[in-house]
């Protein structure tokens, strides 16, 4: 197939449905050979099935593309290695990794269990590391490659009841920056997308109060397939100059997110004491303090 990704081989994790499915289909339509990775479990991790991955593979093949399924988990080093090896064994190489696999275990922080914390960190943050690390040696040897990682405004801005998810997603943004820095000498790029989309994962968001119901209604308008064009672009040679960036995709809207930089400093020639910080330093910086906001407070306009 011809297209922006002709001749490339892509792994898309968590691509049995939702955002990942849209990306896998778009990658194939753009000419890539695709490993469709999904463990086929429920949102809470119960049951494993090859069905979701195979269904997407069947769609790609029916449309004239090339794809193979993979049901290995991203959450351990060994199984993540298997995901990348699936690409190499079937298609001879690996050019693109899209770290999309995810789960949710929402709980207010003071009630969160260690298991709920670990399950989310293992899939999102550790999974992104394991899959990326497995591909890194191939990228280094061939002196090319593109990583696309899914972050979230829950981490970039904040959200209620998602300490585990927020920590993982902000960690992914930092991991992406480090990969971009460490592997730039090998022409390897690493970028993030914060997707706004209705999917099986976001369908677990509570909708009990009028405010929660209104939020869910807005989310339901956001087509998961809208994320795919940015993922394809970032994976293509057309984006060879783009690395270490964080993009947001929200319906027909594309955003670029700021990254932390100093915005104000104060100096005390004789050095600071706790008392002088309270009297002078903190008041001088106060106008630049960030309010306690969640994602919906900052990005509150309706999608277009």
Please give a structural write-up.
This protein is α/β, with parallel strands linked by helices. The protein has one domain (9-259): Rossmann fold (3-Layer(aba) Sandwich). It has ten helices and eight strands. It has helices at 18-29, 51-62, 77-91, 114-142, 153-156, 163-183, 210-220, 228-235, 274-285, 295-298; strands at 9-13, 33-37, 67-70, 96-99, 145-150, 188-196, 246-250, 253-256. β1 (9-13), α1 and β2 form a beta-alpha-beta unit. α3 (77-91) runs parallel beside α4 and α4 packs parallel to α6. The protein is globular and about 70 Å long. The mean pLDDT is 93. Residues 8-204 form the Ketoreductase domain. It holds the Pfam family adh_short.
Mean model confidence by pLDDT: 93
Q: What string gives the helices and strands in order?
A: EHEHEHEHEHHEHHEEHH
Strand content: 5-15%
Percent helix: 40-55%
By secondary-structure content and strand pairing, the structural class works out as alpha/beta
Count of discrete alpha- or pi-helical segments spanning 4 or more residues: 10
- Kindly report the spatial arrangement of strands forming the biggest sheet: 3-2-1-4-5-6-7-8
Keywords:
single chain; 304 residues; alpha/beta; Rossmann fold; eight-stranded mixed beta sheet; 8 strands; 14% strand; NAD(P)-bd_dom_sf; SDR_fam
Question: Could you write a compact summary of the structure shown?
Answer:
This protein has 304 residues and is α/β, with parallel strands linked by helices. It is 42% helix and 14% strand. It has ten helices and eight strands.
Question: What's the layout of helices and strands?
Answer:
Elements: E1 9-13, H1 18-29, E2 33-37, H2 51-62, E3 67-70, H3 77-91, E4 96-99, H4 114-142, E5 145-150, H5 153-156, H6 163-183, E6 188-196, H7 210-220, H8 228-235, E7 246-250, E8 253-256, H9 274-285, H10 295-298
Parallel strand pairs: 1-2, 1-4, 2-3, 4-5, 5-6, 6-7
Antiparallel strand pairs: 7-8
